[in-house]
Amino acid sequence: MSQRELIVLGTASQVPTKLRNHNGYLLRWDREGVLFDPGEGTQRQMAYAGVSATDITRVALTHFHGDHCLGLPGIVQRINLDRVPHPVDVYYPASGEVYFQRLCNATVYNRTVELRTHPIAASGPVEATGAPFTLTAVPLSHPVEAFGYRIAEPDGHRIVPERLRALGLRGPAVGELQSVGTVVHQGRTITLDEVTEPRPGQRMAFVMDTRLCDGVHELASGVDLLVIEATFLDAESELAAEYGHLTAGQAARVAAEAGARTLVLTHFSQRYRTLDGHRAEAARHYDGDLVIAEDLTRIPLPPRLRPPTGNAR
Ligand SMILES: [Zn+2]
Questions:
Q1: Which of 133, 145, 252, 259 has an alpha carbon 20 to 30 Å from 164's alpha carbon atom?
Q2: CA of 243 to the centre of ligand 1 (A)
Q3: How much is the pLDDT for 154?
Q4: Cα 82 to averaged position of ligand 1 atoms, centre (Å)
């Protein structure tokens, strides 16, 4: 049984508060663990969430403002301290190379683990060797260069047990059908197409600090899970535009237009004492599964959509 969920480690923009840690999110996706934007205190939040350094297979940074990367020195050193047995891929805007190097070399430590770096300079797919998904980076609009990320599982097919039963197929015959693509059963050749249905791949997008721009819509299009910043409310939309951020209303409208199935709002300004306003504003535009992120919550990817013609289970 695969496990796909977002573990929220922190939800505060700019400064941590008593209730909200700096940003940080771990996406568990089968055997992968993608750590997005580790801010200060991410190690401690991982301990609370039951996440170990070994769970991290990739780190993806949207940009080099402190609330999105000040946790990186601790994470990199912890990966080494714990002698994580696999290489860790790290994605970040190429223009921030100097900051990346400083963060990775902030203090003395014994570097043993391989960090495979992937500086990103343009929109498009990035190398994700061994992953069960494609990873795409798309530029956002922020005072410093920023990229959002989209994770997409290739579309596939799944066997429909009812169709196997209807044909009387089982055991080794099913194995042969899967490996060869056809099997002769009771004098008839059965093809894989007869017993399978399309299985749409799952998709997730991570959209942090940005104004509304084409990239936001591109990333969000048709995703199962959209994690998106909602630093402000519509009443502060001028501030949001000036500082390169979104409002809850804007984020919700993006999600609605994109057909996102679960919407996670996060990265909240400390100016708001409660997030009731964010929930109400978002709910006016988006009627799907809305989550106002809290630290240490776990949000599962919604179950796969069934194709319209599917008739199994
Ligand atoms: Zn920023």
A1: 133
A2: 8
A3: 94
A4: 30
120 alpha carbon – ligand 1 mean position (Å)? 17
First and final C-alpha spacing in the chain: 16
Six token digits for residue 303: 């179950």
The token pair that represents 62 in the structure block: 């949207």
Per residue in 126-140, pLDDT (tens digit) is: 999 999 999 999 999
Catalytic residue from among 37, 67, 209, 295: 67
**Ligand 1 center to residue 142 CA distance, Å?**
7
Structure confidence at residue 309 as a pLDDT band (50, 70, 90)? low
Tell me which of 19-28, 40-49, 75-84, 105-114 is least confident. 105-114
**Tens of pLDDT along 251-269?**
999 999 999 999 999 999 9
d(CA 168, ligand 1 centre) in Å:
59
Which residues, in sequence order, are CB contacts of 305 under 8 Å at separation 6+? 200, 224, 261
Task: Using the structure block, give the residue that is written with the tokens 């089968």.
Answer: 30
What's the gap in Å between 247 CA and the centre of ligand 1? 14
Contact 285, 252 (CB under 8 A): yes
In DSSP terms, 263 is beta-bridged to: 226, 290
Q: If we measure between CA atoms, which residue out of 145, 75, 147, 71 comes closest to residue 115? A: 75
- Count of Cβ atoms closer than 10 Å to residue 242 Cβ: 11
How distant, in Å, are the alpha carbons of 140, 142, 185, 239, 296 from that of 145? Answer: 7, 6, 59, 19, 28
Candidates 75, 79, 71, 89; CA nearest to 113 is: 79
Q: What is the arithmetic mean of pLDDT over 99-123?
A: 95
Cα–Cα distances in angstroms (integers) from residue 173 to residues 178, 179, 192, 269, in the given order: 9, 10, 11, 59
